[in-house]
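dumping this here before i forget
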Amino acid sequence: MEKNENVEMITGDPKKAINKLSIPIIASMFLIFANNIIDSIWVAGLGAEPLAALGYVTPLFMIMVGFGNGLGAGGNSLISRYIGAEDKHSANNAAIHNLILSFIVSIIITVIFLTFLKPLLVLMGASSVLDYAMEYAFIIFAWTFGLLVPPIVGGAFRAEGDIKRATVPIALAAIINMILDPIFIYVLNMGIAGAAWATAIGPFISLLLMFYWIFVKKDTYLSYSRKDFHNNFKMYKDILVVGIPASLEQLVLSVLTIFVNYMLTIVSGPTSVAVYTAGWRIVNIGMLPAIGIGTAAISVAGVAYGARKYENLRVTARYAVKVALIASIIVCIILYVFANQIALIFSYSENSAGLAPMIAGFLQIMCLFILYVPFGASAGNVFQGVGKGTISFFLTTFREFILVLIFAYLLGFTFHMGEFGIYCGMLLGGGIGSLICYACIELYINKLIRGREHAV
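structure:
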């Protein structure tokens, strides 16, 4: 099979591949997260109602983003396995199937959301700000194609080890959004519609750049030529077997947040929800190194599995956990030591000044959650890499929707520990669940190695 520098990297030493892939992924994720926060700050300048409208639309937007990331993981996994098996023809065909599937899914999501947008927003409680919410959401979902396809194409680039082309367009989209937000919202006086247009245009420009590389410059390792395409419904199935469960994992996490907010409201009222919302955003930033390293592991694991180099698969899982854990420990220490200073970000006004000590206390407890993420994220991503997306989804659901909620309820309500008990329960459930996830991937890899030895 013909190779280039990127493919040689992805099929070589798993440790070097993870190192090279993960850093740009983490950087692009950070830009996306920063862009989301900045977007909220600009919309907040329009008043409470537009900001609330943005909040109501966000869960629907995240469902769409989840589908994009999930299908990107599915395509990444399948293409990586073909590259590992040194079957470039099938890798090319899988990349084309991945692109076609992204077109189909974007059309379906556009039709569904635009058709049921108003009743969905009303059902979610947005009646008081419905005009603002509809104005923003209609633009967003009309541009689903430009928002959904880039992460899917980016997954194909990651599969061939071309991390530059996988991450530069994503970073570019975030930067364009940051620049256009104040121009559209305030200079052009477009209001919340301006925020929607800025959100839609950035990714669309990044998609045009991706298409330029693929169809005009034609210098990517994977070929998207018509002669490389042979319709194969099994390829669609193989992408969806990983892509759909990966997409649903985002839904599980969103539902978990709803339940946690509900429990906090019962024991401590809306103030505790505000503390959790603000503090959890910071904790999410702290998770980025582990999540980025885990995302890199999808490609590396897929290649190792496709090549039947199961020892490399073991190295991938263990090294991803090791590096992510080191990074997470550093982040955890920083959050604990500087909790008071970080809390000031969300308590700079007179109305929110009283939240500072509570947010700081939250950070000093929940920063420990970051230490568990490397085990669960790496295990789940390696399962996705080898095409076992259903196992990854089951483990995520078991960890987040069963263990975390059960322990949070037990400590918060049964043992009457209140808000502190809910946080401790989340730590306990998340920790146990993450370790179970990692134990499962170790057992799975050991089974693969033993099976090959017996076959020999």
